[in-house]
Amino acid sequence: MAAGYTRQNAVLWRDDQAAGAADGIVEPLVLGAAGAGSKTVPGSEKVPPGCIPRLWLDGRQLLCGTRDNLYRIGFAADFGRVEGVAALLPAEQRFVSGAVLSPDRKALAYLSAADGVESIHRIDLVPDAVPVKLAELRPPSAAADNPGNGLSHLVAWL
Hints:
3% helix, 41% strand
């Protein structure tokens, strides 16, 4: 199973698709509303447009993110159907970027920006969890010879 992103939609490539492709070309299955000529995963209509896959939470749950939220997408055991889509963050106007899974796979850390201030948050992966702001991030002084200086990225939670 692989997840990716193309044409404004999250997509899946399932192992069983390759076996039936005589020419070796496998079209991805779209998560979300059906587009012209594309096959969708049943039950995925609630996946928001622009939801980019970030990581697998476990063997059947995919984390994807839009500009303002993170979503948990649950699949049937055979990945033939989406069983649920849940927003993980409260409905607030902010920019959400990056997400890393804790080593025990029970929480996420993510970056958020509002009113020009970036911060790092933690949220437990349990129903009705509330995010906790861990810290505001202040970018280092930008150096003239390093235009990428000051951009925050989450890489891993060790």
